[in-house]
């Protein structure tokens, strides 16, 4: 049977392996923070960190979350831009029917000498 000392040593070794630095770990955390402010660099860094971690057989959760957050925020941003553009175009076509100065063409200042 294993003594308490041997069990403690095995537990300490497994904890050290979980806390050990692996490729892409720091980059994944940086990508996660960056993904909220700059989506394209956050997405690129998250993908790089994810690939580096997969090469050594480790799971990099911050990198996966960074990729998901960056992609989601980019899609929402594109949808917002398309929506605002559609709104402005529809408002512009609505107001474009009134002429150059809108409904107030009759109230223009008279020209000098006329």
Keywords:
single chain, mainly alpha
Textual characterization of the structure:
With about 110 residues, the chain is mainly alpha-helical. The protein has one domain (about 20-105). It is built from 4 helices and no strands. The longest helix has about 35 residues, at about 60-95.
Write the layout of secondary structure elements.
Elements: H1 4-19, H2 25-35, H3 39-55, H4 61-95
Helix pairs in contact: 2-3, 2-4, 3-4
Outline of this structure?
With 114 residues, the chain is mainly alpha-helical.
Work out the oligomeric state of the chains in this entry: single chain
Number of helices: 4
Helix amount, in percent?
A: 55-70%
The profile of the biggest β sheet is: none
Number of structurally distinct domains: 1
Given the helix and strand composition, which structural class is it?
A: mainly alpha
- Helix-strand sequence: HHHH
Low-pLDDT stretches: none
Strand content: under 5%
Whole-angstrom Rg: 30 Å
Number of strand elements: 0
